[in-house]
Amino acid sequence: MTKTALITGVTGQDGSFLAEFLLEKGYDVHGTIRRSSVDYRERIAHLEGRPHFHLHYAHLGDSMSLIQVIGRVRPDEIYNLAAQSHVQVSFDSPEFTADVDATGVLRILEAVRQCGLASTCKIYQASTSELYGKVEEVPQNENTPFHPYSPYAIAKQYGHWIVKEYREAYNMFCCSGILFNHESERRGETFVTRKITLAAARIAQGKQEKLYLGNLSSLRDWGYAKDYVECMWLILQNKTPEDFVIATGEQHSVREFCQLAFHYAGIKLEFVGEGENEKGIDKATGKVLVEVSPDFYRPTDVVNLWGDPSKAKAELGWNPTKTSFEELVRIMVDSDMAKVAVEKAGEHIRMNLAEYLEKGIVK
């Protein structure tokens, strides 16, 4: 029989990859979107119109909308990927972050119970490596103590623990994947990795002068989002509901990511100086292309995230390094190089058209 899945946050990076993955598996896929005067569906536009892909309006801040959608769809699996997922934004909007990332998880769990699906519907919660925050050991695994270090991480910790509570109190098949940083060509442009690859492409093509970053020495475990959604699915196919770290087991600095991104864009960077005075210089021209700005430092900053995916590898048979770090950066840079080239071509066409109109060549 065809399985039915419901994905919250289907328009996001992970949601779009997961929707593709589940459709290929033969699922009937339903996704939730928020009502908005602006269309944010570019990541799933190619899926709309398919007979097994459906969209519904719902919001994690509105329990009635969740109950209505879950009651109508009656899914076999729910993947809760919706969240206010930007750490820096959580300092500016802590109340909204708490309502969506913490209480929103509770609303989904309760909606499943209220719809009478507690014994049939499996639930995946997108947890985060930010739970480890001010890390107490490296690398981090499923037993490492949490020390959240931002409003985002604290809200996510509530979500993580309420999933555990419902699993034990109501015998529900609900579990969390503790995802370490996962990136792709679909990553939002405000996230540091995409900010770097897009800037490298723009600088290489003469559309931007300089890139400003925060702490270049911050260490992260970066993987490819397209690989990570497979692990989300595997977690719900497991015989028992358990929590898993989803990571590569490798660690790189923001500086390394930056150097590699510029390399794939055709620029060799050399970093000189320390701290806020550190700069990235184009070795061929001597021009400063990367600078550190205190504006991008957080009130409390997580600097050393490094996951141990041993459990997922052993119990789920998941390969965390299917796409290497180098290949991930190359994929992102190639995509952004093409994006910038298209933008430049469009600007050139518009400039020529404006000139022709002014001269009366075309009307």
UniProtKB/TrEMBL annotation:
Keywords: Lyase, NADP. Residues 6-332 form the NAD(P)-binding domain. It comes from the Bacteria. This is GDP-mannose 4,6-dehydratase. Catalyzes the conversion of GDP-D-mannose to GDP-4-dehydro-6-deoxy-D-mannose. GO terms for biological process: 'de novo' GDP-L-fucose biosynthetic process. Its EC number is 4.2.1.47. It is an enzyme of class 4 (lyase). It catalyses: GDP-alpha-D-mannose = GDP-4-dehydro-alpha-D-rhamnose + H2O. HAMAP family: GDP_Man_dehydratase. GO terms for molecular function: GDP-mannose 4,6-dehydratase activity; NADP+ binding. It holds the Pfam family GDP_Man_Dehyd. Its cofactor is NADP(+). It comes from Coprobacter secundus subsp. similis.
